[in-house]
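Customer escalation, tier 2.

The customer says the design service returned an amino acid string that "doesn't look like it belongs to this structure." They asked us to rerun it and document both sides in this ticket. The original structure tokens are below, unchanged.
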């Protein structure tokens, strides 16, 4: 489809009978390009979710580390080993 549109656009520009018609056709081409660019720029991802998810995971990890640190049945060596695994 893209190749057909390119061929159609190139055919129009090359077959204009007058300067005014060529300018009108070029205006249509410019408008189509601008409309396409606007449509592409309108597609965005919601980046706000990523920082919130990261903060949530960091909070969970900190909580788990605190639980390990406060566990009196584990030696310091065992606590460090468990923390590195998580």
């Amino acid at each position: 489809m893209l190749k057909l549109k390119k061929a159609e656009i190139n055919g129009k520009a090359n077959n204009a009978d007058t300067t005014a018609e060529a300018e009108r056709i070029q205006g249509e081409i410019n408008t189509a390009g601008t409309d396409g660019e606007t449509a592409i720029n309108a597609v965005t991802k919601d980046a706000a979710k990523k920082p919130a998810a990261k903060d949530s995971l960091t909070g969970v990890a900190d909580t788990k580390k605190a639980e390990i640190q406060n566990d009196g049945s584990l030696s310091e060596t065992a606590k460090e080993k468990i923390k590195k695994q998580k």
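Tier 2 assessment: The sequence is consistent with the input. Residues 19-42 form the longest helix (24 residues). The mean pLDDT is 80. Sent an explanation to the customer and offered a walkthrough call.
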